[in-house]
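Think of the structure tokens as a kind of shorthand, similar to the way a musician reads notation: each symbol stands for something richer, in this case the local conformation of the backbone. In the example below we present two proteins back to back. Begin with the first one, reading the sequence and then the tokens, and try to describe in your own words what changes along the chain.
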Amino acid sequence: MRSLHGGESPWWIVGPRFAVVLRSPSSRITPEQVATNAAALTVAEAHGLPAPRLLAAELDDGAPRTLETVLPGTSTWPTAPSTALFLAAGAAIAQVHAVALDPRPHLPMRPRPIAVDDFARDRRLGLMPTTPLLERADEVVQRMAAPAAPKGFVHGDVWPGNTLRMGIRVRALIDWKTAGVGNAGVDLGELRKQVAILYDDDAPRHVLAGWERASGRRADDLAYWDAVAALNTPDSWSPHVTRRRDDFLRAALADL
């Protein structure tokens, strides 16, 4: 048995003939998030989505915990950019967004990625440092009405570390603790932001191409969701990462 995150939940448990992941509350995972992960995996299995399968859940005794399958693959992406992998990642999240879903217990509306955080609000309240670029972007987004439709299932925290890949194939999406219902742009903007930071300016374009090819439609309101994803970022990043985030945000603002 070993921790998959800094000495606490989730736990990888391996026996002579089995391997499972045990999730329980921790300093970074709330009881509600354990329940959300279980609810999301139930929806994922019902629709054949690329995700672990829920084996057991105990959610009602004050100490929620779940068991889920372990899937083969790695969550580490290559150092060099891979167009094929970007396309595959875009296609993988398109499968999630094809599921029509109404809000329900443990799967609420998600207006932004990692919706349990609202760093743009924290900056407005003076709880975090800000910059003229972030202030301008927040003002622009606040003046706009959030796109109303379409809405469906969203993962809520799509980045390379929450994928399992085998070569250039995305085997599954993992860690569904902030999943819910929302616009596909919640996930698409977040993944585009993540690959822009990790790779180069072409990477988001390939993610978009993979998503549109798999979904059979054009993505709507892309600049809005890119800006929302860029605004919901912490302030404790390196100068290089901050610069790439800001470049991504400027490109979104130019299209708004």
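Once you have a description of the first chain, move to the second and do the same.
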Amino acid sequence: MAGDERIARAGRHYEQAVFGGDAGALDIADRELDGVEADLALARGRIAHARFLDGQGEDGRELALFERAVELYGLLGDVRGQGEALFWVGIFHQVVRHDQETAVPVLERAQELATQAGDRLTLSYVLRHLGIADHVAGRLEAARERLEESVRLRREIGFLPGVAANLVGLAYIAAGGGRRDDAIRLLDEARAVAEAGDAKGVMRSIKEAYGQL
């Protein structure tokens, strides 16, 4: 439901309470606004993270925004939203702070919630980043399995830029295991998928990976 619609609904519940004498409508209004706040916190946190990836430095609000979203989605009983927000808390610790030890348990909980909610997109992201944690720890086979499952999910939902990004990750894993020919093949496939999905950002990663191999 769109935020504007929920705000309008909260306004109608206000009128119902003030003019209709139904004080219980105020609790419903609060829940509507909690949902809007949760969505907004998650969206603002993601924008802050994108600025970090763009080289603009860490935004001190990012983690607090994601944690607020987790809290609000939890209060609302929104399993899908809570799983997505927890994923971003994990991403903050993994990508911004380089703290795999803190990130992994959060990502594993996000995996449980995304699976429960049937949220294949968030699940594909969680698996990718759990695979990255495995790769960093030298568990190449576990990393490969997670990224391949993420690729499968992303193909199912037609998320081509995400497929290409994962193929790059799989290429690095193959290279780390001494399988250079497989790594080149994976990068060739990643390039074709990225071109089909107009994923210019991923294309930069592919060119960098070719150079390193």
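Compare your description with these statements about the second chain. The mean pLDDT is 93.
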